[in-house]
Backbone:
């Protein structure tokens, strides 16, 4: 009986895990004095055969962490909170200035160049994944 249960668990267990994303080029802007918000950028690659939907984020350095985008509205650039961001199977999504980014709101302390922070991405299947972000001088964030 124990062997049958073990075999059943081995067959079912892979279904319980999310198709994880590969994250690279992670950087987080150091906040300037007087500012308690900042943004994080990355390259998100889905190397699997399944689409992945990112539905949220959280961080150890901020009170609130949200998925955001910048979109042109006529001649104005507007920042918008996104409920989710899809990363299709075999595709990548770049989080960069003037596009998608992770917004960190209500920083708990000043974060400085050379430090690291953790951001957790949350997926629509209830799983999550932690990533380390290097804090960099905001003047060195590439477009």
Residues:
């Amino acid at each position: 009986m124990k062997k049958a249960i073990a075999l059943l668990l081995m067959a079912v267990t892979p279904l319980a895990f999310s198709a994880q994303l590969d994250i690279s080029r992670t950087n987080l802007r150091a906040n300037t004095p007087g500012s308690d918000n900042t943004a994080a950028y990355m390259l998100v690659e889905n190397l699997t055969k399944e689409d992945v939907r990112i539905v949220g984020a959280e961080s150890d350095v901020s009170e609130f962490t949200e998925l955001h985008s910048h979109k042109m509205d006529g001649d104005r650039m507007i920042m918008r909170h996104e409920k989710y961001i899809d990363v299709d199977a075999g595709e990548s999504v770049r989080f960069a200035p003037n596009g998608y980014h992770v917004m960190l709101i209500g920083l708990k302390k000043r974060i400085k160049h050379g430090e690291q922070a953790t951001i957790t991405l949350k997926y629509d299947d209830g799983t999550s994944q932690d990533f380390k972000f290097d804090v960099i001088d905001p003047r060195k964030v590439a477009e």
Q: What stands out?
A: Helices lie at 2-12. The CA atoms of residues 80 and 107 lie 19 Å apart. The domain at 19-140 is CATH 2.60.40.1890 (Immunoglobulin-like).
